[in-house]
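[job 4471] stage=fold_predict status=RUNNING
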Amino acid sequence: MTAKAFTPKDIAKQGLARLRAKADPRKARDVQKYFKETVKSYGVSSPDIRAIAADLYAAIKKDWTVADAIRLCNIVFPELELEAKAIGALILARFKKEFPKSLFDKVKSWLAANRLDNWASVDVFCPDVVGALIVMYPEFEEKIKSWAGHPNRWSSGPRPFPSSSWQKKRNIWIRSTASRDRSFPWTMTLSKRPTAGC
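[job 4471] inference complete, writing structure tokens
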């Protein structure tokens, strides 16, 4: 078996180095204004984060599998900075067509362990990871609803909006609406999207 050009550790190291190179302390301080909880940030813009993730994916797409992307997330999700978590989520989402059912339990473990402990990280992660899992494995919808009683707020209310390409491909629209129940801050419903306009 041919050795892979880049391991998950290599890509994590490269990603973190590029984020640090673009760090802006002033913008990092401003980020806190958008959160009730304390967060850490490099102050890197969303377009730059996505560009870094795209470049890293281009370097590994020929020889990585979804298992490698999951290992990358295991490395970068414990990082405190929002941008590091985002790079892991964005790269993992690129492998959505390969998502195994076992990823569902891994997702819950990440959320329960506070690896994605703020709305920004959840908003990056859930649309194309949790959403894609539900599209591929509809039986997970009921399981996610059962997370409502979980003591961890990020486990009790993931927001799985699949990307527009998945919505159109499967003609399924997954949306979340605010819930008055604080123990389940985001409720989910599945509905058929009208064919017109897809």
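[job 4471] summary: The first helix runs from residue 8 to 21.
[job 4471] exit 0
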